[in-house]
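Problem: given the chain below (197 residues), write out its structure.
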Amino acid sequence: MKKFSIILVLCFLTLNSSYGQQRVKVNAILVDSSFDAASLLKLHNAVKVLDSIYNSETFAQAVLNADFNVGNFGLTNYQILELIRSGSDNYINKPKDSSIDIRVKLFDEYFGHRNFGITDMNTRVTKTHRCYILHNDIKCYISHLAHEYMHEIGFLDERTWAFGTKTKSVPYKIGNIIETLIGNTSQCIAKDETCTK
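Solution.
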């Protein structure tokens, strides 16, 4: 059933693609050998879905209509959309090449505090808890990668005030847009457990 729902999402987004703009290609760059076969398969399928989403008119309209009022660096919605689709990944200061390169690796031991993934802002590598990938629906991993890619291109989880919520920041809003587009109704759970290859 899960495979069927991903196929439906891909078909919907393919029919909804933006024909007036240059296609962006989404790639996963493995920075080490931490991926096991099951996690690698989920990564591969997640990247295919993200590729379809980022090229869809539905995604473009959702970004253009979003309210990015926290941590947007003064960029307009159009500029945020263009930055996402440009492939100008900050971690290597590469030129605009319409190639979104998501640098990924896994960790085995849970960090605590619902922290199942993080992007190092120096290396721009996204590390994800292996158990989170293996024990949740693939849709959880898709929205997680979308959220973390916003960190890779430089956006932070800024708060509206000192102890306020981070969910109004650009990474959370993009992650929520992706969740809506793929119809993620799964409860994405991070557990205190260790998973190894």
